[in-house]
Amino acid sequence: MIQSHVLQLTSLVALEPPATFEATAVRNEKLKVLQSIRKFTPESVWSDVVRGQYGPGEIDGKKVPGYRQEPGVAPKSATETYVALKLHVDNWRWNGVPFYLRTGKRLAKPVTEIAIQYRQAPHLVFRGEQLQPNLLVLNIQPDEGISLSFGAKVPGPKMHMGPVTMDFKYRATFGGKPRDAYATLINDCIRGDATLFDRADSVEAAWELVDPILKAWSEASEAPPFPNYPAGSSGPGSADELTAADGHRWRNL
User: Fold this and answer.
1) pLDDT at position 208 over 90
2) Model pTM?
């Protein structure tokens, strides 16, 4: 998921505006992003990447087995079902901005989204207020749309700020049934539009980022402490430490 889906979403978010909205121009800009991501070292793998495997838990009020209790899975399997990592894009636009990625199975809620958190203003004029960061959230699944969260003054004589969320959802605005996940891609194949498809050099660039992680895990002297998060949770606690070290936190729904 990281090498294929998640890094592709990362490149779409971080790319520079292409000269034209054509396949070659768009894919060139996506490649530049992947090539700008700082490569992992054996040391940074252990500080910037977290892996996990779910154990028994509860989802929607029903008890579910752990990964090792699933049919066809070895009782001592060390296959990860969760990955979280921090990326650095070393270019002029994104220098100093951390990118946090995560994907996993049997989590609390099946959601795919991209949350862009705006930096705090250098001078806060609303003193004494604990303002939540402004967020632009791109909702991919299950409800396609965009939401913007920001602070606004609560009506009344006192100066008090509260969070406000403005939501746009494709289905609510335009109606109709959502397309199947691959319907757009099949349609693009028929029309010969390669914009949304990976190019060989992009695939190679993504694997160059992921390979050091896989190598470090395979050469580890100790087996991972699996399972390390229950099914129905938001993932292992070490993933929270990954963002907390920078003063951030995951957007848990």
Assistant:
1) yes
2) 0.89
